[in-house]
Every structure is written in structure tokens, then in C-alpha cells.
Amino acid sequence: MFSKMCKEAKEVQEKWEPKIGDYVIFVNSEIEGIVVHRMGNNIVMIASQENTCYFTTRFNLVWLPTQKQLQKMLSPNNYFWYYMGLNLLNEKLAKVYGSFYSGGGFKNGEEFWIVVVMWELYRKIWDVCMEKWIKS
């Protein structure tokens, strides 16, 4: 679900400045990999599963930000945000997502944090049935 959430998060994709080590997936396939070289909009990616090297442009890729990269979009780097602020976020998201959230609907930290980014910055929520971000 995370790769689909990222593909649909146009606002997050627009902010992407490709860096070596970024996780990516091709726009029209499930081939995931890591950026190993960048020159302007041209990117060399090594596919994780195949050990194959691809030469492409950033426009053919979807960035799969890490939990740390997602957190960085939101916050000052301080103790309160990372530790104390999580309780406040949990309360907010429980209200927005209801039973889906309380039932453990997000499988990992990246899914949780992209939901937080899209809510806090763009007031969008993930529609699980339609698999897209909708304005709230």
C-alpha cells in the first residue's frame, strides 16, 4: 500500500530532490530500487530484487521516502516532536481515520508518517477503498 500512497501523493513527489540512496519505484511497474547516481534529471537506479541497473529520468520514478525523510518534512528536530508529539498525532489520526486507524490499518512507520504528512501539510486523507488521497 505504501508505494501506491506515494504514487498518489503528488505534493510529496513534487518536493523530491533525488539523492543517492533514495528508495524509488518505477511509475508504471512494481520494480523497486535505490538511486545510485544522479546527473540533473537523469538517474541510475539499481533494482533491489533483480540486481539490474536502470538508466532513466526522475519523471519515470516515484520516490518512496523513508520514515526519517517524512518526519523531516514536518518538524523541527527536537525531543518533543519525536517522542511527546506522537501521542498528539495518534489522537488526531484516530479521530480522522476512526476504526481503520484503531484497528492497525497502517502496516509500518512509512505508511503512518506519509498519512501524517498528507494530513498536516495538505489536509488530505487516504481513501482505502479508492486508493487515493482526498481533500478533507
Class computed from helices, strands and strand pairing: alpha+beta
Low-confidence segments: none
* Average pLDDT metric: 85
Provide the gyration radius in Å: 16 Å
**Number of helical stretches of at least 4 residues:** 6
Distance between the termini: 20 Å
Order of helices and strands: HHEEEEEHHHHEE
Strand element count: 7
Shape: elongated
Strand composition percent: 25-35%
Characterise the protein shown here.
This protein is of the alpha+beta class and 136 residues long. 42% of the residues lie in helices and 25% in strands. It has a five-stranded antiparallel beta sheet with strand order 4-3-2-1-5, with helices on one face. Helix 3 (67-74) runs parallel beside helix 6.
Keywords:
two-stranded antiparallel sheet; alpha+beta; 6 helices; elongated; 5-stranded antiparallel sheet
Indicate the topology.
Elements: H1 2-8, H2 10-14, E1 23-26, E2 32-39, E3 42-47, E4 53-57, E5 61-63, H3 67-74, H4 79-97, H5 99-102, H6 109-122, E6 124-127, E7 132-135
Antiparallel strand pairs: 1-2, 1-5, 2-3, 3-4, 6-7
Helix pairs in contact: 3-6
